[in-house]
Amino acid sequence: MNSEKIKFSLIGIYLLIFLISLAVASFLTYIFKIGDSLIRALIYIGCSGGIGGTIYSIRGFYQNLGDNNFKFNWVWWYIFRPIISIVIGVFVYFLIVGGLLSVSATTEIDYTKGILFYCAIAFLAGFSFTQFASKLEEISSTIFSKNKKEKNGK
Fold first, then answer.
1. Which residue, among 138, 101, 122, has the nearest Cα to 53 in the 3D structure?
2. Separation CA 7–CA 13 (nearest Å)
3. What pTM did the predictor assign?
4. Cα–Cα distance, 8 to 28 (Å, whole number)
5. Residue extents of the structural domains in the chain
6. Core vs surface per residue 11-46: b (16+ CB within 10 A) or e
7. Euclidean distance between CA atoms 23 and 85, whole angstroms
8. Residue 52: other Cβ atoms inside 10 A
9. Do 53 and 18 form a contact (C-beta atoms < 8 A)?
10. 27-64: per-residue pLDDT in tens?
């Protein structure tokens, strides 16, 4: 077995172990009732985002391998994408509950959404991180851009 095949195998094993670890972490949190309800919710939501990002990474990994288009300069992407997706999963929850991000046509904040709703949104944010990052840039520019009066010096 040459070193290139070993590197392929290690990346694949890493992604599978990461995926299984996130599923097990969620399951253990549920079984052992780890922390209070907010901590449990954040663990579920973070794991959901991480699972979404890991599935996307696995999908890209096997597609690039199948097309003989795998480039080793993307290795860090495969390593960091699932980790970043965990963080994004948690922050999408904060953005929705905080009222800065709306996922429906209404602008009203609804605190009655169940944990499964937030886990699903976190999964989608982790899975489609590029689109979510674009949405974050849009929100940031809306919040932090100067208004027209400040730009004109008035």
1. 122
2. 10
3. 0.87
4. 30
5. 3-145
6. beebbeebbeebeebbeebeeeeeeeeeebbbbbbb
7. 14
8. 28
9. no
10. 999 999 998 999 999 999 999 999 999 999 999 999 98
